[in-house]
């Protein structure tokens, strides 16, 4: 475990119809005026965010749409001309604050908003890359991020832009000037609380309120993971929902309801009948960005690993509501549904990777589904309607999965899943055994995948034309052993040791195209180093990602053939986006190596020492003469 500081030099752990009445024209004019700021720039509305998936000139949500498809209908850059793509411009984040750059950019009204390491945010002219303003959050020396000083992106609404900070805070900035409008701390950073994920905007269909939704990080320090809704105008908390069973939620500043059963039967008791220490520090942090199901008015978010990793402090029980996908009522923050990816998680598989909402054919009919690529090595395709149903039942394991498929090689902890019960077919002997009497450590065992996962934070994309998911995965393994521990505020709360190893000589990273209807891996592209960047796919027929050795690469979405690559000078561990301006298509992606692999990666960390650090944002285009489709 590494503690990271904001200070450089210390090692460290985003047609009107032609015929229209005068009254209708006046109404439209008034609407346009109402949605524009004094300087003529347009405010971001909920309708802009809700329609982000189908618009091409802006990117105003993390996921390029509330369903998180990361797909664009643009095809001006396509498989016929992408080989001629060149940099249009690049921007350096500057100074000595480098480390991992895992952000996804937002684009609105000719301005790019990109977050950077150490809780920074920049506004750039989309045409030239000129810096319009920059904001650097003042961080204390004693922040405790587990996995580098990254920031994965911002949210935008109205005339403000919002970013989480490493000292467990949230800031709202004026999007035109970068000046702080409000700043709120949500928890104690000295206990290990922090925030690295991008917040999101949701409009509750019941109340009409627009909510700023964000989670917390810190499972490795024994925090209780919490999901929050805030007023985007003031930053004030509206509700808070803990993700450990039996902990109390808040609504409008007062205690509301416990999460699930107040007795928390999925966590053990001591002999005196009181809850074990682990329950008080149970993890489950929802540190990734939520998606939103408009039809059922439901927030969908992944939950983190239970704390500690060592299951002997949490058994028996499933350690609800950790390492799974949670379905939340926006009006009150009540938990209405949950599907657990790794019951009583013993390997830090977590469950945070974003859930992508989509439709597919199943047994001759179209069903609404959620797709989740998990660190435990499996791709989950779940029943969105069942899990979002307000039926009084939260845990919905049985019969709520359409399919659960292996997406990496040689998974050792489970042979597969029983869809009827919704539970894994675990392999005996794959849970690290407790230390023998008088011993400090348990016997090491080898488990695949390792705790960094078959995939990790990096988002997959869903192509609406090919009907495939493009998933950045890794094939690697690990030695685990248990250790004795007692909770201490601000200290690592794992109870487990580990060492990551290669699984194959041929590769570690693998970009895989998967069919959610069958679980078939349609094609794969292998990489020598771990893949730690997300993917983007488009109607132009390509899928794009970044590599740890510094390349941005594009592939044919149907075949996996490499079409183009460009060396950025540092590892690429971020999330690409695409948009159009003045009829031309652009692609934007951040470069700058870091994240969890160099800090925790064992043999992989040794391998990545060859990669230079960096901090920059690159924009690519196909030169004008060849930019259009023939």
Task: Provide a short characterization of the protein structure.
The chain is mainly beta and 630 residues long.
Describe what this molecule looks like in 3D.
With 630 residues, the chain is mainly beta. 6% of the residues lie in helices and 34% in strands. The protein is built from six helices and 40 strands. The strands form ten sheets. A six-stranded antiparallel sheet has the order 11-12-13-14-15-16, with no helix packed on it. It has a five-stranded mixed sheet with strand order 1-34-35-36-37, with no helix packed on it. Residues 1-35 and 626-630 have low confidence and may be disordered.
Oligomer: single chain
Strand content: 25-35%
Structural class: mainly beta
Q: C-alpha Rg, in Å?
A: 23 Å
Going across the biggest sheet, name each strand in turn. 11-12-13-14-15-16
Distance between the termini: 54 Å
Low-confidence stretches: 1-35, 626-630
Number of strands: 40
Number of helices: 6
Q: What's the overall geometry?
A: globular
Could you describe the largest sheet, including whether it forms a barrel?
6 strands, antiparallel
What characteristics describe this protein?
630 residues, mainly beta, six-stranded antiparallel β-sheet, five-stranded mixed β-sheet, 6 helices, disordered N terminus
SSE inventory with pairings:
Blueprint lengths: L21 H13 L11 H5 L20 E2 L13 E7 L13 E3 L2 E6 L3 E6 L5 E6 L18 E3 L2 E6 L3 E6 L5 E6 L14 E4 L6 E5 L11 E5 L6 E6 L5 E4 L2 E5 L18 H4 L10 E3 L4 E5 L21 E5 L6 E6 L15 E7 L2 E9 L4 E6 H5 L12 E6 L7 E5 L4 E4 L18 E3 L13 E3 L4 E7 L1 E7 L13 E7 L6 E6 L6 E7 L8 E3 L3 E5 L4 E6 L5 E6 L9 E5 L2 E8 L5 H4 L2 H5 L8 E6 L9
Parallel strand pairs: 1-34
Antiparallel strand pairs: 2-40, 3-4, 4-5, 5-6, 7-8, 8-9, 9-10, 11-12, 12-13, 13-14, 14-15, 15-16, 17-18, 18-19, 19-20, 21-22, 22-23, 23-24, 25-26, 27-30, 28-29, 29-32, 30-31, 32-33, 34-35, 35-36, 36-37, 38-39, 39-40
